[in-house]
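The passage that follows is intended for readers who have already worked through the single-chain material. We present the inputs for a multi-component assembly, then the predicted structure in tokenized form, and finally a short commentary. You are encouraged to pause after the input and sketch how you expect the pieces to fit together before reading on.
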Amino acid sequence: MTRFKTLKDKAIAFDRANVDTDQIIPKQFLKRIEKTGFGQFLFYDWRYMADGSLNPTFELNQEKNQNASILIANENFGCGSSREHAPWALLDYGFKVIVAPSFADIFHQNCLKNGVLPIALPKEKVVQLLEKGKQQPYLLEVNLEKQTIRDDEGFQVSFEIDAYWKTMLMNGWDEIEITLQLDDHITAYEQALR
Amino acid sequence: MGQSIIEKIWEQHIVHQEEGKPDLLYIDLHLVHEVTSPQAFSGLRMKGRTVRRPDKTFATMDHNVPTDNRKVINDKVALNQMTTLEKNCEEFQVPLAGIDHPDQGIVHVIGPELGLTQPGMTIVCGDSHTSTHGAFGSIAFGIGTSEVEHVLATQTIWRQKPKTLKIEINGKRQHGVSAKDVILYVLSQYGFDFGTGHVIEYTGEVIADMSMEERMTICNMSIEGGARAGLVNPDETTFSYLRGRKHVPTGEAFDKLVTKWRSLVSDEDATYDRVITIEAADIAPMVSWGTNPAMTSKVTDSIPTSSDYETVVGKKSLESALKYMGLQEGQKIEDIQIQHVFIGSCTNSRLEDLREAASIIKGNKVHPDVRALVVPGSQTVKALAEEEGLDAIFKDAGFEWRDSGCSMCLSMNNDIVPSGEHCASTSNRNFEGRQGSGARTHLVSPIMAAAAAIHGHFVDVRKMVEKQPVR
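Having made your guess, compare it with the prediction:
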């Protein structure tokens, strides 16, 4: 996993609630056996017309919303299927931070495993950010160590993150490696079971 | 103070606890399928790691498999994913019920069917509907591919202790009200994310009266309310379902297990972070009309109108859902015309589901404007249904009778609903594009799907079962 410490970059508004992982990456793209290359299929059914051309009304296709790495969305982002292809697609497209009032549990977990930072903020703060993100250019600065998110216009808010995941992300650690250091605990548990 | 079954199972599985960290939990059963595992096995291979407990791991292929002719797989990318699973299972010595195996089926159907799923277990699978297995009194939840790799390598997982939510459903159901209607009703009342961060314990007279198949339907859709998992306390129904199954010990060993399983049941004075109480009398046959499973109403009701929603987000969601579905505010549910019927999926493809659907179908014909298919949940379900002659009932009525797989629940294979057409589906998700690009899904019970197949639109199925109890 790549390390995450701070990021100052373009943040765009994606004002939709209950965005499910079927929309983030539709099933026809889950047949590949690699983790890479999913960005081209991100939000496929919304992003492209039936003839394969770009849908001009879709947020991510608008000129002002290009090359952003922070996505501001609405509640229950990433609900539904457990497919990790969803954060793989978001990351491959270029998103490293998702800000929303709430996230679905499995998606939230899958993001953290891939170095994508899901930031849950109070609804009213997200509403503010959604308005700001509709006007481009708009930059947000995310500081994981201080657990803050701020812009150049005086907006600043702190966010919660599990201490465990904060450490994992800041160090870019491999979780399996950490767990294998507890191998004797696992073996002891298994022996006690017998 | 008493403990709930959730707390008991959790505590029994803690391998390691440390201040400021989630708990490291031991996993008793890891189910694997072709779609969410290839990158996990590659990860192991790159680091030179092995599968710690192949004996606690079981694989099958279900998402991609053709259900019409499994000898010919035209989709080369899908075929590659299936052969990759075969190679991975061989290399890492993981047991596999492959495409030609008699035990093959939807992973959440075969786990219980083979007796792999047992009370008190922690069960994971790279699939959100893993919550199905909670019906047996286990903590079962879906995980991503990174965690599939983690469990393969370590047989453990890091998890914060969940909050607990008790859903008590009291009274007796009306005839014609299925388990599917019960869970759709819960979602329609409490929304699409009410369970986030919680494990649900379903309890009350309605749940106690239910068969294992019905409990599986309920637990299956816990994820549709955002819950981490959903479970039911094990009881005699659970034990008699498990007795004699392939992977369940027999004789004294079984009796010892039953004693252990009984001790898991939630204590009378257990407390929960949240409690919801529901009266069975309020539940009617349900039909989803929108683009998430909470957008569901009673079959005798009409689609809500904008004024029924208080928030801007709610009004906007209604508008975009109805636009996608090609439906109008206030339209009567019974007036929705359907062109497809799908009876299948990990929610409703077990023998009992097929029996119930067949009881409605028998002696009737599929409406001329409707294409209808039955996809049994496993090859075992298929064989048992054929022994009972259920296949003949469906085929005589004009249904297609298929091999097992996930099929039209997510349409990864070639079972697809064409754009703009409506499907009465016994599956679990009505998301945009779920059954095909532009496809319009209505989530219903097997008997409602059967009734819709005959009439070409939804009907109050209670009128069709008045003389014959559902169970």
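Commentary: Chain A touches chain B through 47 residues (CB under 8 Å). Chain A has eight helices and seven strands. How closely did your sketch match?
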